[in-house]
Amino acid sequence: MHPQVQVIRSAADLRMEIGRHSPQIKVIAIDIFNTVLERDTVTIEDCQKMLARRIVRTLMDRFDIDRTIEDIIELFKKIENNSEHSAMNAQALNPSRFSGFAETLANDLINSDHVRIAALTERINVHMLAVETEIFFVRLDIAKILEWLNYQKIRLIAISDMSFDPTHLQNIFAHQGSVVHFDHIYVYPPHNSVNQSQQFFKALLQQQELHPHELFYIRSARPSNARVPATMSIPTVIYEDIAYSRQTQTIRIYRHLAQKNAYWRGRHLMQLIRPAAARSFHFNYGYEILGPIYATFILGVIEEVKKHHIKRVFFLAREGELFMKLFNELCPDFFEPDQIPSAHYLYVSRQSTAAAAAHRGLSHEVAITPLLNPKQQGWHSIFQAFNLPPDAFTSVCRNHGYPEIRQPIADWESVQFREMLDDGDFQTTVRQHAEKNWRLLQQYLIQQQFFTEKKIAIVDIGWNGTSQKFLQEAFGQDENYPHVMGLYFGFIGGRKYQFDSKKNTLLGILCDERNKTRPGDIFSRFEEIFEEGARALHPTTIGYQFDQQSDTIIPIFKPPSGDPGNIESTNNHRIAEIQAGVLDFTSEFARAIDLTGYRLDDIKPFILTLAERAVAFPTAEECSQLMQLEHSEDFGTENTMNFQHEKFNNRSVLLKPRNFIRTLKNANWKYGTVASLGFPGFNTILRLYDLFKSK
Q1: Among 399, 475, 504, 537, which residue's CB has the most CB atoms within a 10 Å radius?
Q2: Where are the beta strands (DSSP E) in 397-443?
Q3: What are the φ and ψ backbone dihedral angles of 313, each rounded to 5 degrees?
Q4: pLDDT at residue 89 above 50?
Q5: Which candidate, 357, 586, 383, 333, places its Cα nearest to that of 475?
């Protein structure tokens, strides 16, 4: 290789080499493709499938035309064979390089209807522009150097082996957060022979009014005729980052594995996610653990919403606030812009819906819900959960043998308990106090257009579908009550509510105990982290009131004094960091899903494995950090789960087996408790025991 050609292996070395030549440099020329811009997908076929998926969606959703991805790709090939459109090559899918391609494709798909052809042509052009923006990414190491050069007032020119719209190039940089200005874009000659390359660089020097040593040329090793600029005394460097080359090879390996075995599709998808800049533990945990899990859940939600043609989706407080943000981030890749379902955030909770559900009285099925909490305080918990004043029930409680209402109730199937529920005075008092709560919630739901569609979806963390049950109890008898499709992160089903199947559908997206999927059961082993990671920073909704200023019904939030020690607010900064990581990940997830076309069933097996790793086999840092979180309970009790009390601070506890077993038995996150011992293999033993026991 010519002595003036330097091979650079890192961004730091490249900056040093530029600095060495800086006294004489007036212009830096850089190859755009493979040096600055890389293509995420491995083959042009991947790019074509990505474009075809978008076109198929538009045909079905906007024009009611049913075509397959394979049909569209066949039409691509047909158009490629036409010399007029031969510019569709292996580099990219840029509409500026094949004028008329979209119109030709639209004509092949829609015959004789000029208005529809024009509309489809416009959508195809939009899709091609979006695909090209998606498939290329700016290498951050190079982008930082180019930004630095712009700041140094050194002129930059781009060299490409295809015609490229400069504005579109700037858009690609801007799309990824980089601001780089190129003075000009030069295009290589079509065949790029040695003679043509020489003529190309001579013309470049003349147009820029440069001597050879005043131009600094950066390129990758992939273009041909590497020696030509160097033989013309133009300082030339080849930039080949070893770490990036390894990453690219790894992606190819996982892509190959994904084609052979469906399990690897999730791993392949994750390999396409670009690493985030290191931040706090909680941000990283959101990006690397909870982000993939939450985003996969919302992918499943979108698939169900699209499958059932649901036009209105309600996200229930408080986890729904984050879930709605993820939904809005991902939806544009699955719906035509004018057909994206409307998303609404509902300030509802188990407590606010329970207060309305009691307006027709308390059934045994509903009344015992607060008693399922191991820290329940008997009738006091019931009154608290259903927003009933305890003083109003003092005499009836005493009449039925409950002089102390805070006494835990161990047997809620007893004759004594049922007789109190059957007491006419008791039920009359319940209905009187619940009536106001029912009317306020009804007005709030009308205000939020809850009753305007025949079928709606509600999205929530789930577990038992309690809020959906209470909504049914409160309003299910109304003629305009919609069919409610409950789309839940997980449906554990430990509380077996009776639902009217004509009015309700319940589906656990990531885990559904009715299907007994392994390792989907892992979510029930640490529900709190998935709730805490997604919860909104505003307090729990406990009721509603009329606001005269806005003339609307607004939520009433649980006061800080209702949260022992205001625990939640002390953890809010950690939750905010987790959610920042989740949101950043979801942006990358959207791109990776678009690149691959993977669906929930493709990536779910791997994501469940990731969840199992996170819950059952936490690292020492994860165990330490997550057990600092405190989970506030607010339905029938004001207890707080303090995971610090569940830690083993030293291994001497093993010398006291009874204490060890008692602590482990009462722990909410048993795997975290065992991991706090720091003994390798203990969590594996616990997991095997857990799986055996739950068969």
Answers
A1: 475
A2: none
A3: -120, 125
A4: no
A5: 357
